[in-house]
Each structure stands twice: as C-alpha cells, then as structure tokens.
Design a protein that fits this description.
Radius of gyration of chain A: 26 Å
Distance between the termini of chain A: 55 Å
Oligomer: heterodimer
Shape of chain A: globular
Shape of chain B: flat
Number of strands of chain A: 2
Structural class of chain A: mainly alpha
CATH class of chain B: Mainly Alpha
Largest sheet of chain B: none
Strand content of chain A: under 5%
Largest sheet of chain A: 2 strands, antiparallel
Helix content of chain A: over 70%
CATH superfamily of chain B: MetI-like
Number of helices of chain A: 16
Strand order of the largest sheet of chain A: 1-2
Chain lengths: 301, 302
C-alpha cells in the first residue's frame, strides 16, 4: 500500500486533486447533459409514446424533420422571424450596452442611483411577470384600445398617422416605429452586457491614461487607442452572451413554439427535431461570429 | 487660448447635459412599468377607465392585494419558493466554487476540454434537453440501477442533483465567474500554505475561500435571483406544487374564471406582480451597494 502511494508522483497527485475538484461537473455533465443530449437526437428520429412505467420509441426515420420543414404550419415562419429579430436586436443591445457602460463609468452626481436603476432589469426580469403583462396588454388592446394606448408605451399611432399624411415612405416609418417599440425590450435585456463591459472598463489601470495624456493624447484618441482595444475581449464575451441569451430566451417565438409542441402539439419527437434544427442554427451563427471576431481582433493587434 | 478654454467648458457642459437627459430617459423607461403597476395596484376597478385619474387613484383600496394573496396562495407559495431558492442557490454556490477552483488552479490532461464542455452547456438551449430530462426525472432509475424508476417530479431533488453537479440554472456562468476570479488571485498565497504543510483541501478552505468572499456573494445573489425568477425549470419539475412563478403563470386563467371582467383582473395581476417581485426588490435595495461594488471588484473580467 505504502509502495503504491509513492508510485504517484507529485505531478500525478496534482492531476488527481484537480480532477477531484472538477469531478462533480463531470458526473453532472454525463448524467444531466450528455445523456439527455443524446437521447434528444434519438427522440428526433422516433415517435415517443408514454406508458405507465416508462416510454416506448417507434422508429420513424426522418419523418419528424420532414414534418416540421414541409408540413408544420408555423415552424418555418417562426424560424425566419426569430432569426430576423435576433439579427436586428443583438447589434442594438450591444451598441446600447457599450454606450450605457461608458456613461455609467464616468463620474457624476447620482451615479450610484443610476447604476441601481440600470441593473434593475437583471433582478426583475422574471419570465412569469412578463408573460402576465403581455396577456394583460393583449386584452387591453382588444377590449378598450383607447385607454390601452394611454397606458401602453410609445404607441404613437397619432404621430404615425400624421407622418403618413406628410407622404413619408411607409416602409421607413414602420422600421422606425418598430425600433421605437422595441426600445424597452432592448434596455431590459442589456443588464448583463452592461455589467460585463462596465467591469472591463473599471479594470483598465488609470496609469495608462495618465501616461497618454502626458504624451498629449486627447480624450477621443485615448478612447479609441486605449479603452476600446483593452475591453475588446470582453465586448466579444458580451456578443456571445447576447446571442445565446436571445436564442434561448423564453420570449423568443421559436422557443415558445418548441414548448407548446412538446406539451400540447404533435409530440416529443417533432419538438426534439425542432430543437435540433434550431441548435444547429445557433451553432452556425456562433461559429461565424466567433470567426469574424477573432479575425478582426488579430488585425487590430 | 482663453477662447479655447471657454469652448471646451461649453462642450463639457453640453456633454453632461446630454448624459443627464439620457440617463433620466433610460431610467424612466426602466421604471415606468413598475410605477404604473404600483399606482394601479391600489386602484378600484372604476379608476382604470376614469379619464380624470392619472397615477394617483381616486378610490384607494387594498382589495387587489387581498384577492391576489388569496388566488396565489401567497403565504404557502412564498414560503416554498423562498426555501427552494435558498437551498438551490446555496448548493449551486458550493459546487460552482469547487469546480471553478479546480479549473483555475489545476491543469490536468483534458482540463481545457472539460472547460470547453462547461461553455457548451451554456450555449445549448435548455429546451433541447427538456424532454429527456423531464422523462429521466419522471422515471428516475440511474441508468437502470433502480428497477422501475422513481418519480422525482414535484420535489426539490432534480434541482439539487443538477445544482450539486454544476449543471443547474446558469451554473456554467457561475463556474466561469469563479474560475476567472480564482485565476486572478496570486499563487504565492497557496504556495505559502503548501510550504507550511497544508493539504490542497485545507488550503482551499482556509486560504482561498476567505479571500473569495466578494465573488461568492455575487454568485449567491445571481443564483438566488435566477431560481426565484425561473419558470422554465419550475414548469418542468414542480408542476402541481405551490410555487410562486407557477402561480403567477396560472393567474390569468384563474382570475378569468373567478372574476371575469378585464379591468379588475388587470388590477389583481398588477398587485400579484408586485407581491412576486417585492422580495427581490427588497433584497436588491438592501444589498445593491454590495452587489454593484462586488461586481466591479470581482474579476467578472479575465
């Protein structure tokens, strides 16, 4: 026994301790991630039937995929809508959080209060509450739209009519008004990106700025030559976070469709196929984004 | 030269004015729904359609809150949800600190790959493994070791098992945060402990943990808030139990059945929402200083 113990070198012991620390994740990954992950591939090629003691699978080949791509009435629409919405919203969220983080990083009176308010959406973003509000808004819009408009935000229908009378192009107006409508949503989903970028801003040592200002750099130059390159890695982190968040958020149309298909619609097999199709899209988008970003960061340095 | 100084002063003034306008405006957008909810939660049904009523209700009433408490079964639900959030976030805190420390300080063959897998769990939408997870916990049998399987739904077990193994709600993010924090700590601390004869476990508990309190608080707060706000896992694991998020989700159906008319329901919904977010708001106002400061100080950044 003693001999065996000496057999393990210092390095080997270190490997073992490290693995011991990480081992809970290894177990969890296998049981609660990898196993269900593989199961969901299997489910997507099967029809699933629940019995009293478990479930039975009937192999159907690619029928589920065929179903969602060519038969299912809503999937294609929801898929395209979700992608478009993500492509338009993610840049807006990022620009806004970058801007807000820079603002919150400056010194001014009431800064603490401003930060408290800006991070409030992180605390209050309960899915249940937002779902409840949207049902209320819908009922309001249906039953008494006049008062609903007063209570709702930015529903500037009168302004819109006025601008239409001025012969402005309708497509442009729709775009602007849609953007204005999604302002609250953009602000509410910027909490974590703001946190990430703000923390990055704070981690830049002030001595660099002092040196630069002694050399005669203006604030504008400082921003683009020092601040921006230094927080670039964290901007990338928040890009990835925002994309993932918008893909997996429960207000996302496709995510909701997957959920309703699972519990009420055409069954577990089709919903598994849907989520696989969806995940593949996420993987492609993330791969493309990461590729572009790593290229651009290389050219920066 | 003098002109220059004056110009730059004017510019700075414009800048700060612009900043103030932006901050007040954005703050308004964030706070507006909350303010509407607070004001209308105290209204009597007639006030909602009364064009002369703005913000301050004419007939102040606590009736909405009473009805909301009743429909939500608030006392039981809030106790259950509090217990759930507390235990789950504690368990997640413990496991994520361990795992994050392991990734930060020990390089072993495959550790980079494993950390990549941690990030993978972050980007795979939970909806994807929802059905298999649900079935596995419905007929829980540990890969066939327990015979026919036990139904674990409706208990805290799924949460605890996923929490202790670092695969629960947003746990990959917590592992990432703690790893970054520990990686940023100086290694000489540990070396000193090793030279003094402490083993790796003892070093972790006596030297590293006391120095990591800020990041522990952040992880605890985040995970508490996320469990409290979560509806996805609650719908999967806790259907049929008294859970606040589920009660809120069922509210529209229940109130339509019980009371019928839209106006009163909207008011009750607002009161219920306030009851739901009140504990979080309270926690946040008490701890906000600590929260914001510690987020800045901890290496949420690499």
């Amino acid at each position: 026994m003693k001999h065996k113990r000496r057999f393990l070198t210092m390095k080997g012991r270190k490997y073992l301790t490290g693995f011991m620390f990480v081992s809970p994740f290894v177990i969890g990954f296998i049981c609660f991630f990898l196993y269900p992950f593989i199961q969901s591939i299997v489910f997507s090629f099967n029809q699933l039937e629940i019995t009293s003691t478990g479930y039975v699978l009937h192999y159907v080949g690619f029928a589920n995929y065929h179903n969602l791509l060519f038969v299912h009435p809503n999937f294609r629409i929801a898929y395209v809508d979700t992608l478009i919405q993500m492509l338009s919203r993610v840049p807006a969220i990022l620009i806004f959080s970058f801007f807000a983080a820079n603002m919150l990083n400056q010194k001014f009176r009431g800064r603490t209060l401003a930060r408290v308010v800006f991070f409030l959406p992180v605390i209050m973003g309960a899915q249940a509450v937002l779902a409840l509000q949207s049902t209320d808004h819908m009922q309001k819009a249906m039953s008494y739209s006049k008062i609903g408009a007063e209570l709702g935000m930015f529903s500037g229908s009168e302004l819109r009519n006025y601008l239409l009378e001025l012969q402005l192009p309708e497509g442009l107006l729709n775009y602007v008004f849609n953007a204005a409508d999604s302002v609250p949503q953009i602000i509410n989903s910027s909490g974590i990106p703001i946190l990430i970028i703000l923390a990055a801003l704070q981690s830049i040592p002030s001595s660099i700025f002092e040196a630069a200002s002694i050399e005669g750099a203006t604030r504008w130059e400082c921003f683009w030559k020092i601040t921006f390159p230094m927080i670039l890695p964290m901007i990338m982190a928040s890009v990835v976070y925002t994309i993932v968040e918008s893909f997996t958020s429960p207000y996302n149309q496709l995510v909701n469709l997957i959920k309703t298909t699972t519990w009420q619609g055409s069954g577990f097999g089709v919903s598994a196929a849907m989520s696989w199709f969806y995940f593949m899209t996420i993987a492609v988008v993330l791969a493309v984004v990461m590729c572009i970003m790593s290229k651009s960061s290389q050219s920066q340095s | 030269m003098r002109k220059h100084v004056r110009l730059s002063k004017v510019l700075a003034g414009c800048g700060s004015l612009f900043r103030t306008v932006m901050i007040v405006g954005i703050g308004f957008v964030i706070l507006y729904p909350l303010l509407v909810q607070i004001s209308s939660a105290f209204m009597a049904p007639g006030d909602l359609n009364d064009p002369t009523v703005h913000w301050i209700p004419k007939h102040t009433t606590l009736d909405n809150f009473g009805k909301a408490v009743e429909v939500l079964k608030y006392d039981r639900a809030v106790r259950n949800t509090l217990l759930l959030s507390l235990t789950v976030s504690l368990v997640q805190l413990i496991s994520c600190t361990f795992i994050g420390y392991g990734f930060a300080r020990y390089k072993f063959p495959g550790s980079r790959l494993l950390f990549g897998l941690v990030l993978l769990t972050l980007i795979v939408p939970p909806q994807m493994i929802m059905v298999p997870l649900f079935l596995n916990f419905r007929f829980f049998n540990l890969f066939g070791l327990l015979g026919n399987g036990i139904n674990l739904l409706g208990s805290f077990w799924p949460y605890l098992m996923m929490g202790i193994t670092g695969t629960g709600i947003k746990n990959a993010l917590f592992i990432y945060i703690t790893r970054q924090y520990f990686a940023g700590m100086s290694e000489s601390l540990e070396e000193a402990a090793y030279i003094d004869g402490a083993g790796s476990i003892r070093t972790f508990f006596k030297v590293m943990l006391p120095n990591a309190v800020p990041v522990l608080v952040v992880v605890f707060l985040f995970s508490f808030v996320w469990v409290w706000n979560d509806m996805f896992y609650a719908q999967m694991f806790l259907t049929g139990t008294d859970n606040l998020a589920l009660a809120i989700a069922d509210l529209p159906l229940l109130t339509r059945y019980l009371y019928g008319d839209h106006e009163r329901n909207t008011l009750i919904h607002n009161a219920a929402t306030l009851l739901y977010i009140a504990p979080m708001l309270l926690l946040y106002t008490v701890l906000q200083r600590f929260f914001i400061e510690s987020v800045e100080k901890t290496g949420l950044v690499g």
